[in-house]
Each structure stands twice: as structure tokens, then as C-alpha cells.
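Progress note, sequence design subtask.
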């Protein structure tokens, strides 16, 4: 391999790395939302998988049925995390497509 080719390859790798970092930062700033129970429970998270808001409608708060409320919160939370994972795989997968790099994203 000639030195010029290696230099070009390194420049391309650096360019791709900058694009990956920008895409990752953009993902981290995104907001994801999921509801359960017909909107009775809503969970909002950012792309870092940090829960930023939980909204619970008063109608769903029943002291005699706490398990239902817990289930709704779990459902909404798990769904919002899946949305983040799916978006991350979709966005970051473009950088690893065709590469055999186990453990990447």
C-alpha cells in the first residue's frame, strides 16, 4: 500500500468519525415519547436513555389497583427505550454497514 493511499484512508476514517460523533450527539438531543393505557401514562426520554418526564392521568390512579399503574409505567418505559434503540441502530448502522465489527452499536 502506498503512503498516499494510507493518508487518504486515514482522512476518510477521520471524516467518518466526525460524522459518527455528530450523529451520536444529534441522537442524544432527540426526544422520544411513549404512552400506555390510551394515554393514561406517558414517558418521555432523551437519546441517552434518560427519562426526562413521566405524566400520569389522575383517572388511572387507583389505590386498590396499583399493579395496573405499575404495568402501564413499565410498558411505556420499555417502549420508549426500544424506540431509542431502534433509532440508534438505524442512525449509527449506516456507519458500520458492511463492516464486520462485533460489538459496535
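Output:
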Amino acid at each position: 500500500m502506498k503512503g498516499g493511499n494510507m493518508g487518504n484512508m486515514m482522512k476518510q476514517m477521520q471524516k467518518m468519525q466526525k460524522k459518527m460523533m455528530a450523529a451520536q450527539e444529534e441522537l442524544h438531543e432527540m426526544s422520544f415519547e411513549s404512552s400506555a393505557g390510551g394515554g393514561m401514562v406517558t414517558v418521555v426520554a432523551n437519546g441517552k436513555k434518560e427519562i426526562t418526564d413521566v405524566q400520569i392521568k389522575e383517572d388511572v390512579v387507583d389505590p386498590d389497583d396499583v399493579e395496573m399503574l405499575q404495568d402501564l409505567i413499565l410498558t411505556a418505559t420499555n417502549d420508549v427505550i426500544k424506540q431509542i434503540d431502534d433509532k440508534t441502530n438505524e442512525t449509527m448502522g449506516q456507519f458500520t454497514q458492511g463492516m464486520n465489527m462485533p460489538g459496535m452499536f
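Strands lie at 31-36, 41-46, 51-56. Work on this subtask will continue into the next period as scheduled.
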